[in-house]
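Explain my protein.
***
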Amino acid sequence: MFSEAIPASVATLLNDIYTWSLPTDTYVAGGTAVAIYLNHRVSVDIDLFIDKEFYYILIMP
């Protein structure tokens, strides 16, 4: 699913995110999104964005 732009651990995390209770319009953005799209560099973190108010406490274990 993902290019060589992200390590296996980041790819696993991105796949796991689908099981979290995040708002449906949450998306990957920033350098990681560009790295995946262009496959021009390796990105080792993720940036999740949402275009509305979000209470992170709702997803904490």
